[in-house]
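Contributing new complexes? Match this layout with 4AD.
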Amino acid sequence: MITRRFASFASTSTKKFSLPKNIRQLLEPTDITLDTAKSSTVSGWITSIRKQKRVSFAVISDGSTSKSLQAVLINGKDDNILRRLTNGAAVRLTGQLVASPGSGQSHELLVDEKTGGVIEVLGECDPETYPIQKKALTPEYLRDHAHLRARTAHIAAMLRLRDVLGRRINSWFEDQGFCSVNTPIITASDCEGAGEAFKLSPIQSRHPASTSATPSPTTPPPPSEFFNSPAYLTVSHQLHLEALATSLSRVYTLSPCFRAEPSDTSKHLAEFWMLEAEWAFPTPDGVLGVCDLTEALIRSIGSEVRQKDDLEAIAKLKSTGDKDYLANAFESEAPWARMTYTEAVKELQTAVSQGVKFEYQPQWGRPLQSEHELYLAETLIGGPVFVTDYPATLKPFYMRLNPDEKTVACFDLLVPHIGELVGGSVREERADILERQMREAGLIAKDDPTGQNSSYKWYLDLRKFGGAPHAGFGMGFERLVGWLSGVHNIRECIPMPRWAGRMLL
Ligand code: 4AD
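Output block (do not edit by hand):
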């Protein structure tokens, strides 16, 4: 019966699905065979147009590549079509892909209605009011037009760079036996303990208890929190990753993080993406082994993307570039520098004694300020530098205490122009020391001897039940994009930037 019902389908073979080729797919093969009898169709937006009496030249971009395709349009009788071909208009053009006599492009699309060519205007664009004009537009102006700024060549290139980096990251972690996981965006904890989490609540209370028609005097009042306890947007996925690493061993995620940072700087966003990894059973060489893994990852993905055309397109936005720190980082075989926090502070103090001026005096026990980080990476080292073993008092509760009991097995990777790119550590796996650190951080109350009432009890449990040595790190994705591309304001390294006092769309 069932066989008969589906018999008609059995004979039909599955049709292979594919969308029409985009400009990258049309132009990328080095051996494009030109068959003038065959027509090609290109859909995209006009990025510039030059109209002459008999012929018009339109540059078409579809965002698939930093290269655009020139279409040579033989003007037909319909002036109306010609009038609608303007900068920004969406078009579909059918014609012949032919070798281009012009320089700067190998091929062009010849569209001649007499030989079957078709020009279709799918979406008109008023050239007078279109905000993305051909002239140079400032980053500030483009941020004000966040919904349209991806139409510019360099922002589109940055978006493709993000895409390529994301793919390379996935394949690097896959090669190393990591599992990609999805951790919650809504959390009950403030992982970094810096008080920068956004608190979450519904616009109006929709708790079931509050919607009952006539509350009786004995009905308890509805809880003030949707989840019965405070909820936040995550500042870091680390703690949840640690839970998953106790089962899957090696896990990572590239996910959004949110921080209510009041700082109005070119390196801080309120919503950004972080690549975070946690792995159990790390190599026995402590924090230096964590640095080794981090360096291997960044070198691998960075070297690959440095070959890409998109970096050239982005170069138009570059804020600096006198000295090619990137070449130092990626073209030399020498491992990136490593120094302890204590050594770093001594170097900074030496610099001060030699006349270098800092706003904040470097001193052991105080945080390294952005000016110190940039001095270390740019002036002292001239490339990336791992600074390890910071004082425990400067770092969050989860980092592994060193035998000196003053410092923790952690690192910050500092790079020129950006400052801190990555933060990571060996995690404290010894339950008794972790509990002490959590009490000191105020995560377990003094009057809670067993920690039963702490909302972080589950985190302590991870150590009590088969707690294994493990380590991890977090890298700001926009800072990575900014460092590799030379675009040092990370507001240009995310599609729609949000920062304190500013959220469009
Ligand atoms: O040093 P952070 O605060 O470390 C953590 O959150 C750890 N829990 C990560 C981990 O070990 N899994 O942040 C890590 C990185 C920083 O080095 C920086 O690159 C980036 O996240 N970052 C920001 N990027 C953009 N805007 C912000 N407001 C950022 N805050 C941190």
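Reviewers usually confirm one structural detail per submission. For this one: The radius of gyration is 28 Å.
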